[in-house]
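stage 2 :: seqdesign
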C-alpha cells in the first residue's frame, strides 16, 4: 500500500488499504475479549506514519472519493470478497495467546465486510 502511494498508484493503494483494514478488523474479532481494542487501528496507523503529510492528504482524498461512491465501493467489496477471509493466525495473536477458537469465521468475515468496509451482503 505504501509503495503504491509513493508511486501514485492510488486506486491500488485504496484496494490494499481496504483489504488490510478488513483483515485487521477480522483479526480484531478473532481475538479474546479485553486484548483486542488497540490492534485494529494501530496496524493501519503505523503504516500511514511512513508517509509525509502531503502523501497522506492525497491518499485520503482518493480513499474518500472511492469509498463514498457506491459503485466504486461495490467494486472494492467484490474484490475483497473474491480474495476471501484470512486463513492465518497472526504472530501477535499467537505470541499473546489471544486467539479465540470459538469464533464463527464465516460470521466474523461478514461482520468485517459490513462493519469495516460497509459492504452490502
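stage 2 :: out
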Amino acid at each position: 500500500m505504501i509503495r503504491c502511494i509513493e508511486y501514485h498508484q492510488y486506486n491500488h493503494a485504496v484496494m490494499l488499504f481496504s483489504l488490510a483494514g478488513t483483515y485487521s478488523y477480522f483479526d480484531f474479532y478473532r481475538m479474546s475479549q479485553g486484548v483486542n481494542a488497540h490492534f485494529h487501528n494501530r496496524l493501519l496507523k503505523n503504516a500511514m506514519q511512513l508517509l509525509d503529510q502531503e502523501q497522506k492528504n492525497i491518499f485520503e482524498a482518493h480513499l474518500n472519493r472511492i469509498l463514498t461512491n457506491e459503485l466504486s465501493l461495490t467494486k472494492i467489496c467484490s474484490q475483497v470478497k473474491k480474495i476471501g477471509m484470512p486463513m492465518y493466525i497472526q504472530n501477535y495473536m499467537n505470541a499473546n495467546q489471544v486467539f479465540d477458537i470459538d469464533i464463527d469465521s464465516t460470521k466474523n468475515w461478514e461482520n468485517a465486510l459490513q462493519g469495516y468496509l460497509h459492504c452490502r451482503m
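stage 3 :: structure notes
- The chain has a mean pLDDT of 85.
- The radius of gyration is 15 Å.
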